[in-house]
Structure formats: C-alpha cells, structure tokens
Amino acid sequence: MAGNSQRRGAIRKGGTKKGQVVGSGGQRRRGLEARGATPKAEDRPYHPAARRARAAAKAADPRGGGRRPAAGRKAEDGPEMVLGRNPVVECLRAGVPATALYVALGAESDERLKEAVQRSAEMGISILEVSRSELDRLSANGMHQGIGLQVPPYRYAHPDDLLARAAENHERPLLVALDNISDPRNLGAVIRSVAAFGGHGVVIPQRRSASVTAVAWRTSAGAAARLPVARATNLTRTLKDWQSRGVRVVGLDAGGDTNLDDFDGTDPVVVVVGSEGKGLSRLVRETCDAVLSIPMAGDVESLNASVAAGVVLADIARQRRV
Asked: Which pLDDT tens digit goes with each residue over 281-320?
C-alpha cells in the first residue's frame, strides 16, 4: 500500500522504488535531439545499395574474395578457380597462364603438391599461403584438397583476326566454327586438333556456347596458348562475311549431301561443327555451301563432335600436303 515505506521501523531498499517523479526527466527532450545527417545508402548495412557495394568490392578483390559461383561455373569474364591437386597439376603441365597458386596452411604434402609449387615457381606464378577457411571461402564447396589455382579470363580474338593470321603467313585459311557446342572438353579437343593440322583459329558464338575455361585449356594440352579463339556476336553473320571474302563454309553432319572422300579442301575453308544432339542450327545449315558426311563402316551412326572435326581436318591437311 502507498505510504507503507514511511511507517515506523520500515527500511527502504535503494532502487526498489523510484518514488514520485516530476516530468519525463528529459527523456523526450533527448529523443527529439538531432542525430546528424542521414547516412548514405551505401553506408547502411541492410540497404540494397550497401549489399551491391559489398558485392562489387568482393568481385574487385584480386584474391578472388567473396562467394564463388557454383562448382563447374564461373563469373562471366572473371577469374576462375581450379580446385583439387590433380586438376591444378594438369593445368600447370598444360601451360595454363595462371596468376596465383593458393596453398592451405598445414596442407598435407605429397608429390602433386610439391610439383604444383615447383612448377608455379618456375613459371613465375605467385604462391600464396592462406588459411583453410580462406580457401574454403574461395572455393564455395570446400572441395579443394588444400590447393587452388587462379586462372584469369581468356582474351578472345576478333573473327577478322583469324583471316589476318592466315594472310600474314601467306596460307589459305583453314578455320573451324563451333555451333551449339556446350562442353568445354569438346572445345579444348577441337582447339588441339586445329593447332595440330595447321589451322588458323576457332570461332565460337558469344552466347549458348562453351567458353575457354580451365577445362578447355587442360583438354587442349596448351594449344589454346598458341591458337587464337574468336567470339562472334552472330555466328551466321560472321560466316556470311567470310563467304563474301572467298572462304567456303562447310558444315559437318551425318546426313550431309557431300561425302568427305569427294571434298576438295585445298580452297580457303571454314569447317562448321555442330553438337552431337542438335547438330547444326537451321540458319547456320542454310548458310553452308556444302554439308559433309564422314564415311563410316559398321553400325556407328555418328562421331563425337571433336573427333569428327579431327577427322576432317586431318583429311584437309593431307590434301594440302600433296
């Protein structure tokens, strides 16, 4: 009851009752005081602009900071991380132009790790020791075995550069165009075949196509460093432009109208290779001057795209040597 604290013998404990209060004690006045200028959107942690700024800063981190794309994918035109001891060693053996080798502190040493470090040192690649948690962050899935190799984005040539390369060497152009090829291993194998049989370059569409990733580098066995790969904004338009310059456009298809045995490959030529499933797209097929088929024995209906390209390129190289 009110007033019991004043009765005789009662002891009031400090802080148990605040007693009668007059006014707000200045709480409202302090609540109305100015807190300064409103922070910029980028400085407010939960604002969308702040999240975008953090993402941009991570993307610009030369050490590849930030969340990595899902396994097997990479940011468009951005550096790529090759993870795992075998893939890293294979890339270094193939001469992939890497920029940094990441090694986790305390990683168990073996022959592959030693070779990766030795080759990186010989190639002048930066060797960075990082914590395992940092390497986990760079790899997103943690499947790195204590090692990762950073590969810069590939520098694509312009389609016109491929014809210019043949002209500089005073040779008849021999080019390969890939249509609907989505497997980077096929792309790497084609690059290797073109380099082996004296071709002057490969052109791929800018969209819906495999790009020159570390997988393609590795499959090409380093040929991607010696042979230019161009990107065409519109493959059909590029092929028509080459036709106007005297280059014959020849497609590859199991149901082609021209047998490879009857084909004259001594003229300037671009061989267009389609995917195993879809084959040549309609517009590209209509652009071709001829569609080749490879004679085969037995019940095999078709060859892998890169194998078919290698067979045709080998035959053309044979004709040009005669």
From this structure: 889 999 999 998 888 876 666 788 889 899 999 999 999 8
Measured torsion, CA atoms of residues 260, 264, 265, 270, in degrees rounded to the nearest 10: -80
Q: Which residues contact 164 (CB under 8 A, 6 or more apart)?
A: none
Neighbour count for residue 54 (Cβ, 10 Å): 13
Cα–Cα distance measured from residue 297 to residue 294, given in angstroms and rounded to the nearest whole number = 10
Q: Higher model confidence: residue 59 or residue 281?
A: 281
- Fold agreement (80-151, 159-295+302-320): no
* Partners of 149 in the β-ladder: 82, 101
CATH number of 80-151: 3.30.1330.30
Between CA 279 and CA 291 the distance in angstroms is 11
Q: Where are the domains of the chain?
A: 80-151, 159-295+302-320
d(CA 102, CA 110): 16
The span from the CA of 302 to the CA of 93, in Å, is: 32
Q: How far is CA 10 from CA 5, 18, 151, in A?
A: 6, 16, 81
pLDDT at 204: 92
Count of beta carbons in the 10 Å neighbourhood of residue 165: 18
- Write the burial class of residue 46 (CB in 10 Å: 0-12 exposed, 13-18 middle, 19+ buried): exposed
CB 290 within 8 A of CB 273: no
pLDDT tens-digit map of 70-80: 433 444 567 78
- The CATH architecture of the domain made up of 159-295+302-320 is 3-Layer(aba) Sandwich (3.40)
Per the CB < 8 A criterion, the answer to whether 188 and 216 are in contact is yes
Which of 253, 294, 63, 94 minimizes the C-alpha distance to 185? 94
For the chain, state the CA radius of gyration.
32
* β-sheet bridge partners, residue 120: none
Residue with tokens 């002891």: 11
Tell whether the torsion through CA atoms of 237, 240, 245 and 248 is positive or negative. Answer: positive
